[in-house]
Amino acid sequence: MKNNSLFIFSMVLLMGCHAPDQGAEQQQNICKTLAQGYLKIQNQQTYEFWRLEKVQTQAQQSTLRLTYKQPTENGVIMSNLLLPTVEFVCRQQQQRITLAIKQPTGSNVQVLELQLPQQTIGTPKSRDLIAQTRTQ
């Protein structure tokens, strides 16, 4: 009886867990890619991803804060060291994603903008978009 109760409790607990939201995961991947691309364009490839935070904002907007730091000489990133840091703010509003750099003054300077197509990753594709070939 004790094993059955434990099994039922475990199943209820596991059923309560759900996979992460595909939209949020997609935004994280796009924001990381944009930030890494920007650093590469600026010849700052030595910066490494350190932290991702979700920022509470308006209901129609999803905002992430991405922090990149330069590792120490031995390649270690330690949180308590004052390493050179670049902080990005990535916002998604509907199908538009903007990437900004947070300045030391606290203001954000937009550096990139991406307009997503209506059909994005994770959504079923319309059969109308599938190419067809016919032979006569």
Can you walk through the features of this model?
This is Lipoprotein. There is one protein chain. The chain is of the alpha+beta class and 136 residues long. The protein has one domain (18-115). 26% of the residues lie in helices and 29% in strands. The chain is built from two helices and five strands. The chain has a five-stranded antiparallel β-sheet, covered by helices on one side. It is globular.
Topology summary:
Elements (H helix, E strand, L loop, with lengths): L1 H15 L5 H20 L6 E8 L6 E8 L15 E9 L2 E7 L5 E8 L21
Antiparallel strand pairs: 1-2, 2-3, 3-4, 4-5
> Based on DSSP secondary structure assignment, what is the total number of beta strands?
5
Q: Span from first to last CA?
A: 70 Å
Strand order in space, largest sheet: 1-2-3-4-5
Kindly provide the radius of gyration, computed on alpha-carbon positions and rounded to a whole number of angstroms: 21 Å
Low-confidence stretches: 4-16, 127-136
- Please provide the ordered H/E string of secondary-structure elements: HHEEEEE
Index terms:
five-stranded antiparallel beta sheet, 136 residues, alpha+beta, disordered C terminus, 2 helices
